[in-house]
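Name: Alkylhydroperoxidase AhpD family core domain-containing protein
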Amino acid sequence: MRFNLFENEIAGKFAKRFANAALVVHQSPLPRSTQELVSLRASQINGCGWCIDMHTKEATAAGETPVRLNLVAAWRESTVFTDAERAALALTEEGTRLADASPGVSDETWTTARTHYDDNQIAALVCLIALINAANRLAVIVHQRGGSYEPGMFTAAVG
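Structure predicted for Alkylhydroperoxidase AhpD family core domain-containing protein:
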């Protein structure tokens, strides 16, 4: 690790505010399983080992199955996700790969997501996609490696 964000005063203050923003999403009506699948998929795309480790373990602790977690990267070629989860994963990919897709999130993807999620759920989903992408960048920049995360660790570190 290049720099421990959790031990720095400025980064620590930021992390607490970041965690409070994440808490809004966590307490929203967006299903917890969807939240973890979205966070995992964005983290895979961004190559964030710390966040992949965190969200795989948090999802497992919340009851997610190994089969579904193992298939997130290949969700399009899998039968284990609901139509709503598939819509969330498509929105996540397009919202994460902004530089790769010049129009950003397509109208088709947005419309599909809106058929599955009400206003509060879509708001939480959009906020979650933004938050996980920010978290991925923080961890990747400082080379925070995956492997040592334990469920609840983030909450305890910024609590």
